[in-house]
Write a structure and sequence with these properties.
The chain has two domains: 3-72, Homeodomain-like (Arc Repressor Mutant, subunit A, Orthogonal Bundle), CATH 1.10.10; 79-246, no CATH class. Helix content is 74%, strand content 0%. It contains 13 helices and no strands. The protein has helices spanning 3-38, 41-48, 52-58, 62-72, 79-84, 91-106, 110-128, 132-158, 168-171, 174-192, 207-221, 226-234, 240-246. The longest helix has 36 residues, at 3-38.
Length: 247
């Protein structure tokens, strides 16, 4: 076949892929606002600026569109996580991870909030429906982040900076991952409380104070001493660029 034919085929394929992604991008805020069950295909088509017939050509059912969104969740491509993979497993890295997580949820930039808010709403709707989106997202987070967290937690225990809580003897190896999720829940709930555009929980202090207090709360909860928290929070090196990103 001619080179012209293949160029036409490639352009058609690119247009199709771009159209599918535009449909997905338009669907996310709708699902975030109304949930999967409350969103109609007509609303999805209108949001994407296409007809329902064209919507069905790309996604024959609403379930398939939702599945495409599920497949795109996760942390791939996050430059901070790529940087995290290069850091040593240390107490400083653990402190930097916790502070970065809390900062992104509590005091992130406008761009961070624009990405985070729809995800939080999707999680809330998912938990009220079938839980699929929340399940897939948390599995992706677990696979990408928790191994680094656990390695630094182990290093902090070996350094004497953390005394594992008594419950760790009963939960075995799972206690380490639980510590991550408990900390994640604290940061997530603070962010959820801000979804209306202002905090619906009467927290004392501004965003920076919340970052400091919530980070210390989480680190204390996983058994880190106040001396270690203070030393590694004040340290300007230790965790390298990731520490800089956290503060």
């Amino acid at each position: 076949m001619s080179a012209y034919f293949w160029r036409i085929m490639a352009a058609t394929r690119l247009d199709s892929d771009e159209r599918r992604q535009r449909i997905v991008d338009a669907a996310i805020p709708l699902f975030a606002r109304k949930g999967f069950g409350g969103t109609t295909t007509r609303e999805l088509a209108e949001a994407a600026g296409i007809s329902e017939a064209l919507l069905f050509r790309h996604f024959p059912s609403k379930e398939l569109l939702y599945r495409e969104i599920l497949q795109q969740v996760g942390c791939q491509g996050d430059p901070v996580l790529e940087q995290l993979a290069t850091l040593p497993a240390t107490t400083a890295t653990l402190v930097g991870m916790v502070r970065f997580m809390v900062r992104r949820f509590v005091a992130g930039s406008d761009a961070d909030r624009a990405d985070l808010d729809p995800r939080l709403r999707l999680i809330l709707h998912s938990c009220l429906e079938d839980g699929d989106y929340a399940h897939e997202l948390f599995n992706a987070v677990f696979a990408r982040v928790v191994p680094f967290f656990n390695a630094s937690l182990d290093a902090a225990v070996q350094a004497g900076d953390i005394v594992p809580p008594p419950a760790s003897r009963e939960s075995g190896e799972g206690w380490r991952s639980n510590q991550f999720w408990f900390g994640h829940h604290v940061a997530t709930m603070i962010a959820i409380a801000a979804l209306p555009g202002r905090y619906c929980v009467p927290y004392a202090g501004g965003p920076e104070a919340l970052v400091d207090e919530a980070s210390r709360f989480i680190l204390r909860g996983i058994g880190m001493s106040d001396a270690a928290i203070t030393a590694h929070t004040a340290c300007t090196s230790g965790a390298g660029g990731f520490k800089t990103a956290a503060d």
